[in-house]
Amino acid sequence: MSSGCPPQSPAVAKSEVAVEGECPLLAATFAYWDNILGPRVRHIWTPKGEQLMFLSDGEVTFLANHTLNGEILRSAECGAVDVKFFVLAEKGVIIVSLIFDGELKGDKNTCALSIILPQTELAFYLPLHTICVERLKHVIRKGRIWMQKGYNIISVLSLEIIPIMELLASMKSHHIKDTVLNDDDIGDSCHEDFLHKAVSSHLQTCGCSIVVGSNPEKVNKIVRTLCLFLTPAERKCSRLCKADSSFKYDTGLFVQGLLKDSTGSFVLPFRQVLYSPYPTTHIDVDINTVKQMPPCHEHTYNQRRYMRSELSALWKTDSEDDIPPETVIHTDETFTPDLNIFQDVMHKDTLVKSFIDEVFMLKPGLSLRSTYLAQFLLLLHRKALTLLKYIEDETQKGKKPFRSLRNLKTDLDLTVEGDLHIVMAFAEKLRAGLHSFVFSKPFYTSMQERDVLMTF
Known about the structure:
Elements: E1 13-17, E2 27-34, E3 38-47, H1 57-68, E4 82-88, E5 93-104, E6 107-118, H2 122-125, H3 129-148, H4 153-174, H5 192-204, E7 209-213, H6 216-227, H7 232-235, E8 255-259, H8 270-274, E9 281-284, E10 289-292, H9 296-315, E11 343-344, H10 351-359, H11 368-395, H12 405-411, H13 417-430, H14 434-439, H15 446-454
Parallel strand pairs: 1-3, 7-8, 7-9
Antiparallel strand pairs: 2-3, 2-6, 4-5, 5-6, 9-10, 10-11
GO biological process, one term: autophagy
GO molecular function: guanyl-nucleotide exchange factor activity
Pfam family, one: C9orf72-like
């Protein structure tokens, strides 16, 4: 080889992932900027099996390199992760790339973790974009620590890349396309009190629910019912259960159906449930029970503390195999996770009760029920906007602390605790951090919060 030729590129390591069903993901890549060779691909993950569109390793490498071009002068805060979205019409693909700084072989490098999909899957992927990005961001936090300690980052990244492939494959075949308000979806056969409690808790937890049971038809019936109270985009982030094999719990979905095993039990992974962006309602259709997680501000508080504990425990490891991915972290002596994170639904409401009583007075099979439902959701949306405006005025747009919860409840006709929590959950999705702003000074646990609300 002449001295003027660049050194040969080492072969790129590749992992083929066995995924059940059709996976819309073409590939995932981890690349970094080499000061001598420029953009370099360290690893490629591809789903195993036949695909409608196939990319060669060379094409995948070209696309991965494309995401790092121009990043050599990247200026970002320490620890920042930049999310970039590329649509390459000439290649017929979309690339979602997370750019971050990390250490490889003792040198600071600009790195990119990317997923590649066909352009035809754009409409399918967009509702799931936030879910995928948030999950990849957290695995990057863990990966940074692994890189700093000189461990193999690929093993850490695989812990999230593979589940995301499985998630996209399951959503491709079992996501909620649409639903209408009729007897099959919000069936009159449901026990009225159970249906009322399930819908009320579902709305109080920002539309996030897990439905478990032994009968897939019964589980999916409740899943479709709860999806009636979501937006079309949120329905596309919801999933039916599968009859022949149960899906695993996936962080970030709004409503998901899960089947119990042959012994009639189902164990939820504590870590994934706690990392969900919103608190979650747990519904068991076999025994007609409804339980819910604490409200948003407490959920976020526990989530952040657990995340810090997890990263701290990861930093203290002496080898790559010290902490399995599902180990519950107890390293922070001031924070012991409460594994029993689901509690009974304590807040009664009148909004959902009146809706359920009245909606079944209308004849099924017509558009009247759907129209009535749309009006009910519009009412909740307007109440949430009014609540936000009320708090803005009372606090001079956040310049002063909020001190008049009693007046708010009276002025907005939200004296019933369940009604207040439903409207605040709607407002939380419109203005993230509302619960924390209202309740965080001082921080109230859910039990203390109930005591405070009862005094007004």
